[in-house]
Amino acid sequence: MEPHVTDRPEKSRYEVLAGQDGAETAGFAEYFLSEGEIAFIHTETEPRFAGQGLGGLLARGALDDARARGLAVLPYCPFIRGWIGKHPEYADLVPEARRAQFGL
């Protein structure tokens, strides 16, 4: 099964699932959800899955879901912030008045 991203609202995080059965948590992006906003606060990938592009898949999946849900993104997490910086087509998710705060 191909790696995929899923929201786990009960854990307040997105997870990227991989492995032979596609059910192993390879990484996660923790968030805090408030009215109309999602603040990404921490991202991790399991060391044994490093170098496979799963962090980028996780960021893209989480941000695409935020866009689909109409949520403004506050990228406090350095990984998510850096990923948005490398993919400027996602910068519009960060409120314009807050972009300078995040270096975007």
Please, could you describe this protein's structure?
The protein has 104 residues and is α+β, with helices and mostly antiparallel strands. It has one domain (4-102): Gcn5-related N-acetyltransferase (GNAT) (Aminopeptidase, 3-Layer(aba) Sandwich). Helices cover 23% and strands 34% of the residues. The chain contains 2 helices and 5 strands. The chain has helices spanning 54-68, 78-86; strands at residues 4-8, 13-18, 24-34, 37-45, 72-75. It has a 5-stranded mixed sheet. The model has no long low-confidence stretch (mean pLDDT 96). Keywords: Transferase. This is N-acetyltransferase. It comes from Streptomyces subrutilus. One of its GO terms (molecular function) is transferase activity.
Features:
23% helix; globular; alpha+beta; 2 helices; Aminopeptidase; five-stranded mixed β-sheet; 104 residues; 5 strands
Determine Rg (CA atoms, Å): 13 Å
CATH architecture: 3-Layer(aba) Sandwich
Q: Give the terminus-to-terminus CA distance.
A: 35 Å
CATH topology: Aminopeptidase
Helix/strand order, N-terminal first = EEEEHEH
Protein name: N-acetyltransferase
Domain N-acetyltransferase: 6-95
Pfam families: Acetyltransf_CG (PF14542)
Keywords: Transferase
